[in-house]
């Protein structure tokens, strides 16, 4: 009998923001897989480090950070094959995912390769989006507001159109796109409505008005923008 | 010295999708507050029921389900006052919140009334949005896709415009708006791209193609719509 595949959301970084279910499944895991950079560094593994059993087998999926599709596809092909080997040997495999597996996560590439052949369960996790709102003390969206989540790499003109048409906005994966995003928000007169958050829930977390954001931002940074205040608030 | 206020996200309904932090804070709580319907039923309390200490004091905030602003505002005023009384007496107060406190949650109304006077911490939770994607086996958003979250009560014409302009879409709080939403998605030829999910993560959970959705939907139901598949998936 084949093993079962789990895609497990670990939350935004603070290990205490892991769910009880994630904790149970990881602490009982025989095989733990996770994405890592070329040098082996894995943010997902670091979140779960204290929960992974010492005797667990570990599968590292090295994801090349290239713009082209080919190298990453090949890495997911290989990772999926490594995982499939364990599943076919009857072992369950737990895949560690930063945040939530299906919210801008790489797990979906393994899911697409494996879920039709193996029993698969996805365990949702706390996203960085609601974590940023929590640490910034800024409600994300209320009542009938539409919430638009925009990835930082989006083209400048498209981004400007999307933000202009939106109500509550979260811009994710800010990183090296910070200068472009500031320009867009300035053009829309929204800089005063914007809060910058980096590494939410980690010890190095920072929260600032966008006007006071640093010149360069880490990949794990985000900008929250609201256009008006819910009139029901007070 | 005043007590500290906590707004705690409990996740979508399965108590195991609570975070370790929520579990720790609730299991050590002296005073636990939560919103409830007029008859006293509280979904938030039901999620945390097995974690609340038997000796904890409980504050029920009865929220009237009216369209007008006044009655709900009065209920939040009273709830905030009850909580403030405990905080001023030096007791910490834990407010239980379905999903995430700042994601379409009622906690923001207490936060607006109390956070300037009392130390406050918001603990994010797993949202129903990523939970629906997980149980439906449908990735929400990948790479540079914009994700638009639309509340079901939105006006029909506005909803149609928003969905037409969007890429990945989640429609929340479907409930009695199901007929209107089906009409909108039919008009946009998106019914085949839509998945209906009710009570994600609860024992009564249901997942269906929208075409097979029931005639009436509970408040805790959602529709996921994708317009195309990420070409990187395979």
Walk me through what this model shows.
- The structure is a homodimer of 234-residue chains.
- Chain A is of the alpha/beta class and 234 residues long.
- The first copy, chain A, folds into 2 domains: 5-123, Cobalt-precorrin-4 Transmethylase, domain 1 (3-Layer(aba) Sandwich); 128-225, Tetrapyrrole methylase, C-terminal domain (Methyltransferase, Cobalt-precorrin-4 Transmethylase, Domain 2), CATH 3.30.950.10.
- Chain A is built from 7 helices and 10 strands.
- In chain A, the strands form 2 sheets. In chain A, strands 3-2-4-1-5 form a 5-stranded parallel beta sheet, sandwiched between helices. In chain A, strands 6-7-10-8-9 form a 5-stranded mixed beta sheet, with helices on both faces.
- In chain A, strand 6 (147-151), helix 6 (156-165) and strand 7 (168-172) form a beta-alpha-beta unit.
- In chain A, helix 3 (69-88) crosses helix 4 (107-114) and helix 6 (156-165) crosses helix 7 (178-187).
- The longest helix of chain A is centred in the middle third of the chain and has 20 residues, at 69-88.
- Chains A and B meet through helix 1, helix 3, helix 4, strand 5 and helix 5 of A and helix 1, helix 4, strand 5, helix 5 and strand 6 of B.
- Strand 6 (147-151) of chain A pairs antiparallel with strand 6 (147-151) of chain B.
């Amino acid at each position: 009998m084949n093993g079962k595949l789990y895609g497990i959301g670990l939350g935004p970084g603070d290990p205490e923001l892991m769910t009880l279910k994630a904790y149970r499944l990881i602490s009982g895991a025989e095989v733990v897989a996770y994405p890592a950079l070329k040098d082996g560094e894995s943010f997902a593994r670091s979140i779960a480090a204290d929960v992974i059993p010492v005797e667990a087998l570990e599968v590292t999926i090295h994801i090349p950070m290239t713009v082209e599709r080919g190298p990453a596809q090949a890495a997911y092909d290989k990772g999926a094959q490594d995982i499939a080997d364990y599943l076919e040997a009857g072992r369950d495999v737990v895949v560690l995912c930063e945040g939530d597996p299906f919210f801008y996560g790489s797990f979906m590439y393994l899911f697409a390769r494996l879920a039709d052949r193996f029993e698969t369960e996805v365990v949702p996790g706390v996203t960085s989006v609601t974590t940023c709102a929590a640490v910034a003390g800024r409600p994300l969206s209320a009542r009938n507001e539409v919430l638009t989540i925009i990835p930082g790499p989006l083209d400048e003109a498209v981004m400007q159109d999307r933000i202009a048409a939106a109500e509550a906005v979260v811009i994710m994966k800010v990183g090296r796109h910070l200068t472009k995003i500031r320009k867009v928000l300035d053009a829309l007169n929204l800089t005063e409505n914007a809060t910058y958050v980096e590494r939410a829930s980690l010890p190095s977390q920072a929260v600032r008005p966008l006007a006071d954001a640093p010149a360069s931002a880490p990949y794990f940074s985000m900008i929250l923008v609201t256009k008006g205040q819910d009139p029901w608030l007070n």
